[in-house]
Structure formats: structure tokens, C-alpha cells
Design goal:
- This protein has 3 helices and no strands.
- By secondary structure, the chain is mainly alpha-helical.
- The protein is rod-shaped and about 105 Å long.
- The protein has a domain of 75 residues.
């Protein structure tokens, strides 16, 4: 009879970055991108939250292939809210400038 070790009882090495102290969890950037994308729906007029969501989403796509779906959702939500915020600011700014133009021509 041979004394071969039981494969279930031999310790397995830890995967790199999987819960090691001081290293981020495997999908941290993807989760951050998704959270920033959702937050940009409510805070889209600030322009900073959507830009941060886009940046973290692009970083997550390059570094974390297992979190690709969350990163893509964060990127698309952030882009959509950034575009809508810009359109809103341009529209409101155009209305304000048109109002001042009408007031200036009416008073002259």
C-alpha cells in the first residue's frame, strides 16, 4: 500500500491579491465605477461625479477583466449623465442669454 497524500488535505496557495492585507479586493474599481455611475444619475450636474465614474470604469476595464460588466455599466451611466448635464447647462445658458438679449433690445 502506498502512502500518497490526500489531495484534499494539502494546503492550496492563495491567489495573488485575493484578500491579502494591503491589497484591494479583486473587483474594487469595477464596483466603484458602478456606484459612481449610479450616483451620477442623482449628482450629474456636478460634472465631477460622472468624470470620476468614467475614469474609474476605464481603469477597471484594463485591470479587472472579471468586473467588466459592472465597469461598463458605470461608464455608460456616467457618460449618459455627463452628456445630459452638458445639454442642460447649454440649454439653460442659452435661455438666459436670450432673455438678456431680449431685455437689452427692448430697453433700447
Amino acid at each position: 500500500m502506498t502512502n500518497s497524500p490526500n489531495p484534499a488535505s494539502t494546503p492550496q496557495p492563495y491567489a495573488a491579491g485575493a484578500g491579502s492585507y494591503g491589497e484591494p479586493a479583486p473587483r474594487m474599481l469595477s464596483i466603484a465605477s458602478l456606484v459612481l455611475g449610479i450616483a451620477s444619475v442623482f449628482l450629474g450636474l456636478t460634472f465631477l461625479v460622472p468624470i470620476a465614474g468614467i475614469v474609474t470604469g476605464v481603469m477597471a476595464r484594463k485591470r479587472e477583466p472579471e468586473g467588466r460588466t459592472m465597469a461598463l455599466w458605470g461608464i455608460w451611466l456616467s457618460i449618459a449623465m455627463l452628456v445630459l448635464g452638458i445639454l442642460l447647462w447649454v440649454t439653460v445658458g442659452g435661455i438666459i442669454l436670450a432673455t438678456f438679449g431680449l431685455a437689452a433690445t427692448a430697453g433700447a
